[in-house]
Model the fold of this input.
Amino acid sequence: MADFEIKDLRASVEGRQILKGVSLDVSKGEVHAVMGPNGSGKSTLSHTLMGHPGYTVDGGSVLFKGQNVLELEPDERARLGMFLAFQYPVVVPGISMTNFLRTALNSKRGYDGKDKSKQVTPKEFRSMLKDELEVLHMDDSFLPRYINDGFSGGEKKRAEILQMAMLRPEIAILDETDSGLDIDSIKFVADAVNRMRGPELGILIITHYTRILEFIKPDFVHVLVDGKFVLSGGSEVADRLEKTGYSEWGKEETAQPQEVA
Amino acid sequence: MATVPKVEVGTDYKEKYGFFVPEEYVFKAKRGLNPEIVKEISWMKQEPEWMTNMRLRSLEIFRKKPMPKWGADLSVIDFENIFYYLKASDKQSKTWEELPPDIKATYDRLGVPEAERKFLAGVSAQYESEVVYHSLQEDLTKKGVIFTDTDSALRDHPELFKEYFGTVIPPADNKFSALNTAVWSGGSFIYVPKGVRVDIPLQAYFRINAENMGQFERTLIICDEGSFVHYIEGCTAPIYTTDSLHSAVVEIIVKKNARCRYTTIQNWSTNVFNLVTKRAMAYADATMEWVDGNLGSQITMKYPSVYLMEPGAKGDVLSVAFAGKGQHQDAGGKMIHVAPNTTSTITSKSISKGGGRTSYRGHIKIYPGANNCKSFVKCDALLLDDESRSDTYPYNDVDAENVTLGHEATVSKVSDEQLFYLMSRGIPRGEAETMIVNGFIEPFTKELPLEYAVELNRLIQLEMEGSVG
Ligand SMILES: Nc1ncnc2c1ncn2[C@@H]1O[C@H](COP(=O)(O)OP(=O)(O)OP(=O)(O)O)[C@@H](O)[C@H]1O
Ligand SMILES: [Mg+2]
Done:
């Protein structure tokens, strides 16, 4: 049994079915890449997994630590060990990054304002932050700024990975974290992710490009077309897509799940 | 808005300063409003004749003036059933046990110290902060600053008092300023001499007694040329009172090149009608800043105003209102551009929850000949649910040329995207909502001394949890 099992997941947005039966097993220690054309449902998958209220689950299940996470609130999923690095991180005015990171970390540790022993100490917090900022080549001038407010596209993406590094999830979904990053930044982000990589972390990387996969080598690559996986295999799948694109799955009717030897 | 140097009010200030004035005279409280009661109040305070006459004249005006027809419904106020003057000891009839449980719970949650709670709840007449009022007074006296309660000011500084009292807000201004002038008691009086900068905020809170917290406070601040003062009124903890009417008047004169900031954080218990007239006159190159936070009360009507009297004068209003169940916060600001080359900004932030209602009511007037003025108004309303309501009533009268007038208004709900983002990091829904609300009022909070900012955030948290009555 895999640590994180997506079974026949169907989901719709605004009454339109987008995910048409997605199944995927992710175990800790593994890196899975998901590729697919624009609009194929990749972000719908990531949002549905995290519990975005705008996405309706029409069927299927997602099992993690013995629970169907589809029945949980987003914050409960996060505290269970899930993390989503957003394709489009959200601006929240008036709340500093520091306050946000500290509150998130405290929540993750089950601190509810009462049991002080669960609270992150200022010293621990500072030293964690310092390390991660260094790896991501981020300046601490980000910390007093409001959440994602006025951050450049690339800064937002790095800030997502900073959050991941602070929260140490067990299942992380990175939705196009590499899009909009310059060549150096891709490396910094990859370094930060590789530092976390290990037997305690399963990763789902959604991407359009093979470059990031050169730095974060995936164990599996899956191709999502029109709300379904049409192909799964090893890293050679990514190379094949690089050459031929998605033309062979031009229409849903012709899309057949295939295994690559 | 320029920032005022931050001080650790909670520590530095309390340790150094603070005081109270014992009340010694005897007075038998009566309900109702008539010339006899007004004369008695004046006699009790041993006031000069001009003040007695002014009170009586004001009572006449109050009688004749109609109730304001706009804004909130005030018809339920029964003027004959109110004590217009209470000696501090008469107010202590309540016991701790009689207090509504929600008020007690809030003190608990806020961690308000015992002595302070009793004072705020009207159980004791004075809040004796551990600090020494006299050291503050010494510092101020050396600089020639007067900081006292308004009754003492009339006694001890009669000329200064008479020169300015009632000049910014004459009794005939509105029904409630007339009422206040007839029966006023307590409040603060501040005089800052030419060129003097008072670098710690002066706070009524630490020298407050029941009388100052009374229903009809009267505050008068005079900033002489080139001076600066920051005055802080109120506190974030809820103030419990069985009196249903609070009607204060605040008059401020900011002379050439001077700057005055007046910060209010008020949180009356939810039975109170809070009808306050606040106005400042700003002269050449002077700056007046109103920072006004309104929580609690049943109805609040409050529109701090600045009369920009001479070129270069600048007026700012920054206000926050929070209306919960059964509450109506009708607040805003007025900027009266009398002279050319004057500027003003009004920033209003309101939050409505549980069927609460907030209104922004603003007036920008630019007189003929007051050319080259600039005014900018921004009001943002946040609605926390579908039952709550927010309206804006902006009025502009422009009779001058080359005027720049800006107005921006937004009404929004807590955004699902923001909420999802915070929750996706493990932050529970309620806490995430509170963070978003505190983020929304951050432009206001960041103007407050640190301790007030922290307390305000905690109070918003309690309001959000619905544990505040
Ligand atoms: N909130 C929404 N309202 C309406 N349609 C939506 C919404 N969210 C997604 N969709 C639609 O669902 C489909 C899948 O979108 P999704 O964002 O999952 O694609 P994607 O695979 O992530 O694409 P990209 O590679 O461009 O990020 C698209 O047709 C999109 O327009
Ligand atoms: Mg996407």
Notes: Residues 1-26, 89-93, 125-132, 206-212 of chain B have pLDDT under 50 and may be disordered. Residues A 42-43, 87, 175-176 surround magnesium ion (ligand 2) (CB under 6 Å).
